[in-house]
Predict the structure.
Amino acid sequence: MEKKIRVLQIAHGMETFGGVESFLMQYYQRMDKNKVSWDFLFCCNNTLEKYVDTPTLKDSKITALHALKTTGNSLINYVRLISELNEYLKKNEYDIIHINTANVFLQFVCAIGLKSNAIRIAHSHSARAIMANPKIKDKIRLFVKGIVEPLLKIFIRSNNDYLFACSTVAGNSLFGQSGVRSSKFRIIKNAIIADKYIFNVDIRNCIRNRYSVTEHTKVYGTVGRLAESKNLLFLIDVFYGIYKRDPDSILWIIGEGPMRSEIERKIDEYDLSDYVKLLGEQSNVSEYLQAMDCFVFPTVYEGLGIVAIEAQAADLVTIVSDAVPQEAKVTDNFKSIELNKCASQWAEEIIEIMHVQKGRKNTRSEIVKMGYDISEAAERMCDLYHEICLKREY
């Protein structure tokens, strides 16, 4: 019988359940718990708190250190974090430590500060360059980006046994090209439950009826954290252009985050409160995708864009910015528009695309073929954990 692999999943832990947490839950739900067990350690908040009583996590140890803030951490925060991480590791033994963040500085601190003989995996879930804080003066920011970050990436590459990423773009962002070209690098796909997204007209009608949406109204939508990177103020500009050309249109924004009040003000400025709805966090996103007619994702940076995969799985017209890697294209419904185009150009292109919209179909086979079905992906990761542990033994 194979040895059970003990894995510690480390993540930042922002203020809300996000993409990293979703990734971890999706994979662990479908892993053979006789072969692998996961514990979770959050540097800031426990963003799995709502799920601690679920069958998936019933045997997992979940710890929140609260050593870091969600944003704007000082050196003293990271010193405290490393101290508390090492105290935790003195009392808990693991075969693998899997660090899930695209934050260059957090990965660097873990790379040089953790005292453990466990196999170490650095995992980039985003193309975000965390240290590039737009509030810092341009010259300092360029210095950090051009000099400091490349040096930190050297330590990250050198002090980890494996380098995981959801795409080559996300890998380049955290490990540099040298890391992506190395034998340590692996693409771990942000897989989904393909069956859950198969288009279902009854689900579509149920959700639309809940919001009194007529059959002919076009529902545009997006899913993501209400944060600057998702470019939601620009999305409202784009929708305003769509609405002026087609008043029988509405926009649904699913998610929560720090920009909610700013987004609400923008909606009021355009007098669109009847046509743009902030729906908050939803546990049944797949059902909302059934109800939409077009998914719009003008993100400024993205490691992959798992929601774009989900939208295609529901056979939605999926329109993304050119910041979304082409690895996210899994069906012919995937269209990319340059971020340097203005909102009115986006609106025009979207309307043109919608004019030739076809009926919805079952895309499951396409999702599976591209390796984005979670059942198969979780099994592959479980096998990978065992493979790298076996290599360590020999």
User: Anything to note?
Assistant: The longest helix spans residues 138-158.
